[in-house]
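LAB NOTEBOOK - FOLDING QUEUE
OPERATOR: T.R.
BATCH SIZE: 2
PURPOSE: Compare the predicted structure-token outputs for two unrelated chains run back to back under identical settings.
PRIORITY: normal
REVIEWER: second-year student, initials M.K.

ITEM 1
FIELD SEQUENCE / FIELD STRUCTURE:
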Amino acid sequence: MAVRKLWARGARRGMGGLGAGVLAVGFVVGGGVSPAAANWQPDSSRLCATEPAPPSGDVGTPSTPAPITSGSDVWSFVSEPDLHPMRVTVTARQPGTAPGHIFVGPYSLGQVVGQTGALTVDNSGDPVWFRPLPSTALQNADVKVQTYRNSHTGKTQPVLTWWQGSIAIPPTYTNLPGGAPEPGGCYYIYDTNYRLVKTVSARNGFNADEHEFLLTSRGTALFLASKPVPMDLRPYGGSKDGAVLDSQVQEVDLATGKLVFSWDMLEHVNLADSEVSAADTSSSGGVWDPYHVNSIDEGAGDQLLISARNMWAIYDVARSTGAINWQLGGRKNDFTFGPDADFYWQHDARFLPGNRISMFDDGCCNQPGGAPEQQSHGLIIGLDFSNHSATAVRTYYHAPPLYSASQGNTQRLANGNRFIGWGQSSYYSEYAAAGNAENNGLRSLRYDAKMPGSNISYRAFRNEWVGIPYYPPSVAVRAEGGHHVVYASWNGSTETRAWQVLAGPDADSLSVVVGHASRSGFETAVATNSPGPYFQVRALDVTGKVLRSSKVVKIDGIDGIDIDIDGGIDID
């Protein structure tokens, strides 16, 4: 029986070189994966944003708090002791949800519960895949499934994408307006085996912005980028030696890295139209954020839909000329609003069929600009271009009512449902297409979940995803009450349905199946009376086929300790 050597700790988690513990060498028997695939490692030269931006607060200012990594709100695993994702509480689960897993990037404006990173969970709230980051001053945002097109071959494949970097959150970062990306951020693209495909960075001195990253059918990436531009702000109530946080739409060819398109807010939108005054920039390094662009979408032809939160406006832009075709909301609004159609501080504007626009209307929270206070909600607006009118077609409110000062999204699902990420409120929800009305948030509700503590996610998505990790399953064995308990997990596998446990007197004699159990959450515990002392687990698919085998571990007879057969020790 062939025995192969591979990295068994950092690589198996698919963390792209981030957040890994000390590497330990183990052995895997069988599994049907080529040595090249088993030993695949991301090219470290392609990694980016692996360290947080340097703090900019005053000397002596407390740094970003350490995460809470134990307790009832945090997951801990015997087979993956370095993973501590947050525990999500599912508050409503009704028939009629769309298929797919849920994707979030948990972090906090205070102390985060669990590690920050990219997280996939199922409808029960159990983790499916987690990629932790090494510092709470690093965040992942806009974690979602997209389609990547290889422009050389023309082939397409599903991928996971996200932004990674540091967000300007006081008191650690006071050099930029709150929510702006610190320098050094970038975008990641991962394949279905959790291999790094590509990283993407902004061009021309701009910083990659966490608010949007879209892959196109042209083999390009559309994203937002920002940078401070020095400016005399006295005409807008600010200081002479101030700066404007400019926002730019950039498009990069993924094959060549060439910038193929850009569109600049400062060149096309009047600063005087902002709903945020330039008078108070003392907590943002003198930088004014008049625009705060937070989404891009592509429409038919050469249309781009651009949302600017601090303008209370959504712009339809012609790519070919850069001209603004029309504006919805804000001080140069081209439409008359019907009842419940007005919005403030909005996020995530998307084209829908039939001259409709969806968005997340934050609508609050006693912020500058004098907007009336209203509940945050998902909103679909119908546009009548003949009469220049805007009508509320559907609304999606939460029960209890939520007031999100920032962030959020409204996702259209394949079955017509809407998935709502509540931004600065710690919830995500799914509703039937019909929606509901203010103070009637339970109507049409199909699913609701709450993140622990003050945890939030910039956006939340439900996407269909098939993950088959390039790294092997994880295994740990504990002696408990006169028998052995084998703990099995495979971070990111969506296809594992059951586990087999093999045991034997030596590493080459693991032919006896001593345990079998259906997968039960991220980690499955299987009790066995076998003395071992060598153990291994196999992940099985829905047909009972072996997907992959773990490394081999040896129990040494001491409670709580198992030993990799190369001599490395894992202690709980």
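ITEM 2
FIELD SEQUENCE / FIELD STRUCTURE:
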Amino acid sequence: MTKGYDAVPGGERHLLLRYLEAVAAARRAPVHTAVAFNAVYFGYDLGGDGYGGSPLRLDDFPVITLGGSVRALPVGAMVRVATGSDPLYAEIVHREGAHPEVGPLGDVPEWVSGAPAGAAGPGRPATGAALSRRELLVPDLHAFGPALSLSPAQLHRLRTRRRWINEDGHVVVDVSYPSPEAARCDDLTAYADHLLTAAREQLLSPFVPVSLAELVGGTSNDELRAGLLGLLDTVRGVLGSSASLRTWGYYAVTRASLAECWADAGPLGGDDLRSLAATVEHAATPARRRHGLTTPVTVYTAVGPRLRQFPGAKELLRGVGYAAAVCRANMTLADVVRRDSDQGLFENGSRITLDDTFESGGVWRSHHPGGAKAPGDPLAPAGRGWASTLPARPESEAGGDPEAEIDPVDLPLADDAFLGPGELLRNDAKEIAWRAPLRLAHLIDGWFPLHSYVAHELRRSHGPRLASHLELDHVGQTLDEREAAQDVIAELGGEPGRLTGILWPRDFFPGLMLELRWLRGETVIRVATTPLTDPVHVDDRVIGHCYDSRVLTREDAPGSDRHGDSAVGLGPRQLVMRTVRRCGLLTLDGHALLDRSVLPSAVYGRWPARSQVAVLESAVADLLAERILEPALGSRDAWGQPYYPARDGQLAIPLIGYRPVRRRVIRPWGGTEPDDLGLLAVQFVAGHLRRLRPGCSPSEAQRAAFREHCRRLGKADGWELPHGYTFVTEHTRGH
């Protein structure tokens, strides 16, 4: 599971899914991916004790105080809420922006929607390295079971006093971030950073069922980060695959609870949610006039404050009930947009889009008139409110309407240095042999270049044009007769010479390495592929033959296949992927890294519209969260040339990088399917704790084994066994 969702056999996914569905049903709050990870990794008891019996060391938790200042605390963080007596132990299950300018009716100044952390006003981003913003944290004060929770009467007193928690049982704090990049991190990256720094002791505790260090086989930061992100990806994928759960961003709720809410006629039930949807839909609709035209109207509505205005909602929005209500409201609005509109455009002429997922439970944008052209996915947070307050470009530069759509640029294939005539393998009295990668242009137009030595020899003996023959051997695969032996034309007049009229097999792809042979005196060209010892997955493609990863990165990008090469019709995510892979700096192993600041102009042209920039940034954030793209740091010299890795003395710049995801295709024991239960016939069991019966104690050998286990996990002085437990050493079980 440290390798990510796609690497986990179906049987193991099913076991994890059953547990996470039970967790979602047991908890009142929507289950965030980070919270679901905690439940699995630290052991959340479904019988009512929660984390009460887990190995967590409560005194290690960071302390938060109402109105205080803290370092960034992502969803999933375990905290201590300071009080006048004993602290409250809690798990953060929801967080959102708590901007003071958001009105009590959910009315939002346009500049707040989508504003970066620390923004001081319309079009005024934060200055300086350190950033701060006010956030509302929703702690689950009952996550550690009844033994570590307050009684209802005690909790009521704390809410009434409003010294340690507010009247809703929430904590509002000023959160500081070390950099703008840290403030923009997606939830899972932020939580991974938190576990690897502030909560590192908690993450590497030898008391957890299986420590991350044991799972990845090391304690280096790179190994731990890769394994942790893989586990988070596995948990998110399992939550998203459930038929009984629905997801909103990183949150998951049971379909049963949603159906119960929508059928409820009480406060925040189906009637109120339908009323909320109608309010957002008609928020920007102008009053009808008998004469004249109405001016465009834009209204921003924050979900959280708006929910508080429904009669009887106050009690339901206390504690984790607020997180559940916000999640249900956003799901309802999204369903209405999908069902009743055309890409957000409703019959009344208004266009409804999600503009900000973080501020005040989510901000929705209502604009009238909506316009005929769709501005992209209406549920991709575009941040148009903040973007509309940035300094406008001159109309001559922006192309007129700042909201106008610009067709994506069709990027030409990069003429990189590695794309040469191929590698000469042999040149003797008998034959000439060479190796070269198949290119996208070859697939589209049905041709392949000849090595210059071969072209020169054939031209000297046969002239500028020759009827030739191609014999193709795709090792391990059966080819159609028309593909295996083909009559082709050798065009030898130009440089380089080439074979034309080739019918390439259906499963050939850009980057596939071809080995070619020409026997002197013949007109036959023989082409063969070379099988890999172990097939691999690269993105969505299963590859069983040798290939050039650099060509694959460049030319197998979205919008490119044997039928053509165009960016027209691609969505924002595909445009980002296409641009990074086509325009990024290319490494020897097929990585592509692009200066993040030039992405919009590379996609759309010199001056893209502000709305398009926001949509691209949202797509980049999603791709980074899913680890399809990765952040990196490079530099730029005085002439604007980017470099990676960063060079000393040059301006540091953020990069976004595409790394081909390579995984071995595993053939299970005793079966042909990856999900075959034969994989479970023999299992490795890591060392772990086991509770003893009353009156029993561990042997000295097990105490010593546990100390050695701790040292392997990076605990230099070792730890002692907790009272009432023994240590089970690593072993295998099964046949």
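REVIEWER COMMENT (ITEM 2): The chain has four domains: 5-102+124-255, 264-288+295-390, 423-549, 681-734.
FOLLOW-UP: none requested
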